[in-house]
Amino acid sequence: MANYTAADIKKLREITAAGMLDVKKALDEADGDLDKAQEILRVKGLKGVTKREGRTTSNGLVAAATSDGVGTLVEVLCETDFVAKGERFGALAQQVLDQAVAAEAADAESLLSSTLPEGQTVKELLDAANATIGEKIEVKRVARLEGPVVQSYLHKTSPDLPAQIGVLVAVEGGDAQTVKDVAMHIAAFAPSALTREEIPAETVENERRLAEATAKEEGKPEAALPRIIEGRVNGYFKENVLLEQAHAKDPKKTVGKVLDENGATALAFARFRVGA
């Protein structure tokens, strides 16, 4: 007869986030010893880490922290929305964010190799969580911005999920509301660059080729092609460059114009959307 109770099963599931069947098997093998059962689950879970490496992580959350002109943004991914909205995963993501801040990490590689106060690396922390939760968990992206003012903004795309879109924006000058509005605009309109100079030359050239091919396909006169091509390339900039986008709260003005009117200069930004 099993030497454990329903309360033991519940407690072990809360500790490890393992499935009901796995918990029961571990308790059977450990003869009801909770500590030993936890070790069994972890060992079995760690053996499955390699098998899970090829799985797709399309769920998760973004988390951000700002302090004294420094902002940090992390994207932590898992396989299912069930795990993404769980307290255990949320606590893990917060631990990862705290370490990113402490280590001044600016990319995922440096964060993963950094050592936590407990002595393990972030990579080892994730492997252990991977084992107990039973899903592939990874830090996909990390961003770190510095500036006179760094504003963060997190957005939930679904009320029952954690934040799926995260933004950092570094600004000089301006008031708090102006900076917050720009951060929210970035979340909504997903610019790919701050200025048109930041768009890769090959991307711009490809847009020119597409604009020319489209204009010719439409039968536009040869003499009008340069003007049409230039207009369509400028249209691309207006869609993708933050300072040239129409401001979310005042579409008659560009983001750059709104910043200028409020004595602010955008220095840099970062935007993550889970799985994108």
Automatic annotation (TrEMBL):
Annotated Translation elongation factor EFTs/EF1B dimerisation domain residues: 71-275
Cellular compartment(s): Cytoplasm
Record keywords: Cytoplasm, Elongation factor, Protein biosynthesis
GO molecular function, one term: translation elongation factor activity
One cellular-component annotation, GO: cytoplasm
Gene that encodes the chain: tsf
Coiled-coil ranges (or none): none
UniProt similarity note: Belongs to the EF-Ts family.
Start and end residues of each stretch annotated as Involved in Mg(2+) ion dislocation from EF-Tu: 80-83
Name listed for the protein in its UniProt record: Elongation factor Ts
InterPro entries named among the record's database cross-references: EF-Ts_dimer_sf (IPR036402), Transl_elong_EFTs/EF1B (IPR001816), Transl_elong_EFTs/EF1B_dimer (IPR014039), UBA-like_sf (IPR009060)
